[in-house]
């Protein structure tokens, strides 16, 4: 566990802190995510992608639950993901981060905004539509298209 | 627009945890029987992982590491104590058939509950009762339908584990629960497909599934034509989106017990 922590705690903490904006709350999520992995190591399926990717998604979901003060909605066993790029080492993670920032930077501001509100703030499509005054369908499409743009950037 | 395309936007919202109510229910029902959409959901979560990588910030404080290791050590000690003090309870002793009957009943209750909620506002108290019963039944059924449940198949000593499937079909309620274990891993882009073999006519698709790392899998309430009498059930290997008719030889088959 110490070895896993040393390798991945930066990713987990960075994601939790980005969502929560509070170091104490981020530390609590960090602790919870690693404890859950320790209790149930079988929840992560190594055949589907790197542990860093899985931890990032589990952490984001837990942090959003904490931000919105709700009970965890999904079990970590239910988080099955498939990701193309190899994110096993620090160098790959750093390269991926740079690439993602590039893709996000090149998105139209309205699309980036919708995706970031949904992802980092856990806002629903209805809440985003209300906030931006745009149709619900447009917001749904922007969120989906934003995620697809990221996928596409890593497929080429 | 294909059915899968219709669900594409909802899959992203579902992965983000913001799809609620009827939309979520419909998508979950579809996911239970559609391997292509389950794969797309996994890929959307992969996209989410990529987006997470853009977060950057300071490293966690040093005390966080010790706090975690202390918590792990504490849990390890208490787990050891608990293990020696208590025996596990095993729902498995109830037997496959009895437990499956509970699941089928639970699923039919769920259906009944959904219909009630949609059409009979005045019957809200009954719906609440159904929900309560459903929740209790789900708890009972959890040991065989939850993916993390420990599954143990007992066979004659010195017999290597064989692939095994159990189908529980309640024609009057149009409910089918299928459980499999020891299923061999599949080639990429392939999935197992379950078939209902009617007393007359062609095999009817009854769900596509992929076993987990332990060879276990389940299909719960695939869409089936109402009131079909089943002569047998069979399994073939098909493309992961599923086929309308078997395209490969039958791997496993069983008739009613």
- Shape label of chain B: globular
Reported for the largest beta sheet of chain A, the result is: none
What's the CATH architecture of the largest domain in chain B? Sandwich
Helix coverage percent of chain B: 40-55%
CATH architecture term of the largest domain in chain A: Orthogonal Bundle
Uncertain segments of chain A:
none
User: What CATH first level of the largest domain in chain B would be assigned?
Assistant: Mainly Beta
Overall structural class of chain B, as computed from helix and strand content, comes to alpha+beta
Spatial arrangement of strands, main beta sheet of chain B: 4-3-6-7
Helix content of chain A: over 70%
What percentage of the residues of chain A does DSSP assign to strands (E)?
A: under 5%
Report the β-strand fraction of chain B as a percent range.
15-25%
- Kindly report the average pLDDT value of chain B: 77
Here the CATH topology of the largest domain in chain A equals: Rna Polymerase Sigma Factor, Chain: A
Largest sheet of chain B: 4 strands, antiparallel
User: Count of DSSP E strands of chain B?
Assistant: 7
Query: What is the CATH third-level topology name of the largest domain in chain B?
Result: Immunoglobulin-like
Look at the structure and name the CATH superfamily of the largest domain in chain A: RNA polymerase sigma factor, region 2, helix turn helix motif
Written overview of the protein:
The complex is a heterodimer of chains A (about 160) and B (about 260). Chain A is mostly helical and about 160 residues long. Chain A has helices spanning about 1-20, 25-40, 50-65, 90-105, 110-120, 125-130, 135-155. In chain A, helix 2 crosses helix 3 (about 50-65) and helix 6 packs across helix 7. The longest helix of chain A has 20 residues, at about 135-155. Chain A is globular. Chain B folds into three domains: about 5-50, no CATH class; about 90-145; about 165-255, Immunoglobulin-like. Chain B contains six helices and seven strands. In chain B, strands 4-3-6-7 form a four-stranded antiparallel β-sheet, with no helix packed on it. In chain B, helix 1 (about 5-15) packs parallel to helix 3 (about 35-50) and helix 5 runs antiparallel to helix 6 (about 125-145). The longest helix of chain B has 24 residues, at about 60-85. The two termini of chain B are about 40 Å apart. The interface between A and B is large, with 74 and 43 residues.
């Amino acid at each position: 566990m110490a070895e896993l922590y040393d390798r991945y705690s930066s990713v987990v903490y960075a994601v939790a802190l980005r969502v929560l904006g509070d170091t104490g709350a981020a530390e609590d999520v960090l602790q919870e995510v690693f404890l859950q992995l320790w209790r149930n190591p079988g929840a992560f399926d190594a055949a589907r992608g790197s542990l860093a990717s899985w931890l990032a998604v589990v952490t984001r979901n837990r942090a959003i639950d904490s931000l919105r003060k709700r009970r965890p909605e999904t079990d970590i066993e239910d988080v099955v993901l498939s990701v193309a790029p190899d994110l096993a080492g620090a160098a790959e993670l750093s390269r991926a981060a740079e690439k993602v920032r590039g893709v996000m930077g090149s998105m139209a501001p309205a699309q980036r905004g919708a995706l970031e509100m949904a992802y980092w703030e856990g806002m629903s499509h209805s809440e985003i539509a209300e906030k931006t005054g745009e149709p619900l369908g447009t917001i749904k499409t922007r969120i989906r298209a934003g995620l697809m743009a990221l996928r596409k950037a890593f497929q080429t | 627009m294909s059915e899968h395309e219709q669900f594409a936007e909802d899959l992203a919202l579902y992965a983000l945890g913001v799809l609620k109510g009827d939309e979520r229910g419909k998508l979950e029902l579809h996911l239970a029987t559609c391997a292509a959409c389950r794969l797309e959901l996994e890929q959307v979560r992969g996209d989410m992982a990529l987006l997470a990588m853009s977060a950057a910030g300071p490293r966690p404080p040093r005390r966080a590491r010790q706090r975690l290791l202390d918590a792990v050590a504490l849990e390890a000690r208490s787990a050891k104590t608990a293990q020696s003090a208590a025996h596990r309870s095993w729902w498995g002793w109830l037997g496959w058939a009895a437990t499956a009957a509970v699941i089928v009943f639970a699923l039919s209750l769920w259906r009944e509950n959904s219909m009630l909620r949609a059409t009979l506002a005045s019957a809200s108290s009954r719906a609440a009762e159904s929900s309560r019963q459903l929740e209790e039944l789900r708890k009972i059924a959890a040991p065989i339908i939850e993916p993390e449940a420990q599954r143990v198949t007992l066979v004659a000593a010195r017999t290597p584990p064989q692939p095994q499937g159990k189908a529980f079909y309640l024609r009057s309620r149009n409910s089918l629960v299928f459980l499999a274990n020891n299923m061999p891993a599949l080639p990429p882009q392939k999935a197992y497909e379950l078939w209902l073999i009617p007393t007359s006519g062609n095999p009817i698709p009854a769900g596509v599934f992929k076993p987990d790392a332990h060879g276990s899998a389940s299909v719960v309430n695939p869409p089936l034509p109402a009131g079909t009498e089943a002569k047998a059930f069979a399994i073939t290997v098909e493309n992961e989106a599923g086929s309308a008719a078997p395209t490969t030889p039958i791997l496993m088959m069983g008739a009613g017990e």
